[in-house]
């Protein structure tokens, strides 16, 4: 029986993980070795998302002992012990292939549950096509901002952390200053056991910064504090060299209360793609050079199929189907009917080129792609 942690102030829904009933598989990521499932617990009316992910290897788990150390106790779990069950698939000359089952201590699987899950959560964890939007300040004001004000994930979990109602015992560091302070704690995605895949969040105490877009020169003290104090705390708690840490914001984030993501540079954490991440160092530098940089910049971001914001942008500009001259240049004046096309291609050639572009823009996902293109 697995019960979610409860505190006296905030009641979390209860469920028995072993009673999960599968409705369908949302994504199966063979690279990350994770699978996202949609189903229910006791109440068939409430959807649940369960994400199972194989844990990364800890270096201590492959340690082997010299014969003289063998009698020492207690032993740390290791793959190379008498508990290892070995099935030989084949041995051919110098090459061997096996299926092995290690001891119970090493078989853990990280499991994340979202319950009850909303339609928006289901969208986020489903396989889909993605599109890049170039958001000008004007588009932000007219399209993105009204949308995110009316439709966004609840920030309840963020406020629970900031008010010490949940995850209090997981806090790694806190600076309580209302203007420049923040809470540093493990991200939901981190298994908490493997320093190699360490993943922390720095959540600011200030409530009025939705995202990168709202940052300006007046926030520099906050950002510098976030950078320095997090590095100090991580060095103290985990012994990681501050120069080995990646600190960044997502744009767009899933949750519109400013938070920084922190993980080691040598680990390819989920969501570090260039189309989504903005390094804290770069953000600070941009604001030092131009205090209103993020109110003036065009910020690219990714939208996924199924997100209503994509439909709103589609009404403004073609996104799913690329027009014939849909490149980065200004649209030329319309040509007269008998004029040679400016780039020297005939109408048929133009049409063929357009088809090729459309094919490139909206490919049918191959099975392999479909398994790894989760929106999350
Ligand atoms: O994309 P965005 O920048 O909004 O990322 C939000 C981050 O918050 C993700 O990395 C999530 O894994 C993390 N996160 C989401 N929830 C609901 C929780 C939570 O309840 N606790 C913690 N510690 N992290 C969360």
Automatic annotation (TrEMBL):
Keyword terms: Hydrolase, mRNA processing, Nucleus
Annotated residues for binding of substrate: 157, 167, 187, 189, 250-261
GO MF terms, alphabetically ordered: 5'-(N(7)-methyl 5'-triphosphoguanosine)-[mRNA] diphosphatase activity; RNA 7-methylguanosine cap binding
Annotated Pfam families: DcpS (PF05652), DcpS_C (PF11969)
Protein's GO biological process: deadenylation-dependent decapping of nuclear-transcribed mRNA; mRNA processing; RNA splicing
SUPFAM superfamilies linked to this entry: HIT-like (SSF54197), mRNA decapping enzyme DcpS N-terminal domain (SSF102860)
Subcellular location: Nucleus
InterPro entries: DcpS/DCS2 (IPR008594), HIT-like_sf (IPR036265), Scavenger_mRNA_decap_enz_N (IPR011145)
UniProt KW Thylakoid keyword: no
Chain intervals with Acidic residues compositional bias: 338-351
E.C. no: 3.6.1.59
Region described as Disordered: 325-355
Catalytic activity: a 5'-end (N(7)-methyl 5'-triphosphoguanosine)-ribonucleoside in mRNA + H2O = N(7)-methyl-GMP + a 5'-end diphospho-ribonucleoside in mRNA + 2 H(+)
Residue stretches of biased makeup (Basic and acidic residues): 326-337
A GO cellular-component term linked to this record: P-body
Positions annotated as active site in the UniProt record: 259
Biological function: Decapping scavenger enzyme that catalyzes the cleavage of a residual cap structure following the degradation of mRNAs by the 3'->5' exosome-mediated mRNA decay pathway.
Entry's family note: Belongs to the HIT family.
Protein name per Swiss-Prot or TrEMBL: m7GpppX diphosphatase
Protein source organism: Drosophila suzukii (Spotted-wing drosophila fruit fly)
Primary gene name: Dcps
């Amino acid at each position: 029986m697995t019960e979610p942690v409860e505190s006296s102030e905030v009641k979390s829904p209860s469920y028995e993980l072993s009673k999960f009933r599968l409705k369908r598989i949302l994504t199966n990521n063979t690279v990350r070795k994770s699978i996202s499932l949609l189903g229910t617990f006791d109440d068939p009316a409430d959807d649940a998302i369960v994400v199972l992910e194989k844990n990364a290897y800890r270096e201590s788990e492959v340690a082997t002992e010299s014969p003289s150390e063998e009698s020492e106790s207690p032993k740390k779990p290791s793959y190379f012990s008498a508990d290892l069950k070995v099935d030989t698939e084949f041995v051919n000359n110098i090459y061997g292939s096996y299926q092995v089952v290690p001891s119970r201590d090493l078989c853990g699987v990280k499991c994340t549950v979202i319950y009850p899950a909303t339609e928006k959560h289901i969208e986020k964890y489903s396989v889909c096509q993605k599109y890049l939007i170039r958001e000008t300040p004007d588009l932000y004001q007219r399209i993105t901002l009204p949308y995110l004000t009316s439709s966004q994930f609840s920030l309840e979990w963020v406020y629970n952390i900031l008010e010490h109602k949940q995850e209090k015992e997981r806090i790694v560091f806190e600076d309580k200053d209302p203007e420049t302070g923040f809470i540093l704690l493990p991200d939901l995605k981190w298994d908490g056991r493997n320093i190699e895949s360490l993943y922390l969040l720095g959540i600011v105490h200030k409530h009025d910064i939705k995202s990168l877009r709202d940052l300006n020169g007046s926030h520099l003290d906050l950002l510098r504090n976030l950078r320095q104090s997090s590095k100090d705390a991580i060095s103290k708690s985990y012994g990681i060299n501050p120069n080995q840490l990646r600190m960044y914001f997502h744009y767009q984030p899933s949750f519109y209360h400013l938070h920084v993501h922190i993980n080691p540079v040598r680990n390819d954490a989920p969501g570090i793609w260039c189309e989504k991440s903005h390094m804290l160092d770069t953000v600070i530098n941009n604001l030092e050079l131009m205090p209103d940089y993020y109110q003036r910049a065009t910020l690219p971001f990714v939208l996924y199929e199924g997100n209503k914001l994509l439909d709103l942008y589609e009404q403004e500009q073609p996104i799913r189907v690329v027009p014939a001259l849909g490149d980065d240049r200004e649209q030329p004046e319309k040509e007269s009917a008998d004029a040679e096309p400016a780039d020297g291609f005939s109408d048929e050639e133009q049409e063929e080129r357009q088809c090729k572009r459309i094919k490139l823009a909206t490919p049918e996902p191959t099975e392999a792609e479909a398994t790894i293109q989760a929106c999350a």
